[in-house]
Design brief:
The chain is built from 10 helices and no strands. The protein is mainly alpha-helical.
Length: 208
Amino acid sequence: MPFKSIRFVRYTLSSIATFFVLASAAVAGPPLICHPFDIGNAKSLPWISHDWNLTGAENYDTHDLSGDTLAILNSSQVPLIHMETLRRATLYARKDPVVAKQLLLQLVTRAKSAEASSSPDAFALFDAAYLTEAFETNDHAYICNALDTAARAKGMGDISKATGLSRESLYKTFKETARPEFETVRKVMGSLGVKLVAEPIEEKGKVA
């Protein structure tokens, strides 16, 4: 597999995992979605709340989420609009995991096409990679939840066959209160097509 593809798979799978984590844990107020971005009257997904979260009174049909989100992202060149639209999409996706998966698969497909193009669309890559920041929170519960939801998205049956671990064991492994062994984490990540990479920790306040 070419280096570009490996690099892409690594960050897009992180994006998928993170998106599902946010979609399932939005009530707790994860950093990337609990702070709305001010986009004025710019076109985005419908929003009636005066807070960061949904009010519960929305009548938006989430079956339109993928098409509406992609249409907005494709028509805008403003980063804040992309970020706010993805934030709202994450909250709406909480209502329907199938819709959430569909949207993420479309974002990944869009980003893959952009990367393969002779004139890559930077926003397509940005949209797919934006949510990876949440995966770097070093929050144990978030990381376990991310691996769990990414595994569920691919299919626990496939993960079980690839890792040699039972489905029951996998379901228990990445509960927020679990403490999975390193070898288990390594096997699951390998089955998802990603690997752990050691990188130096940047010192806060350090000027490049």
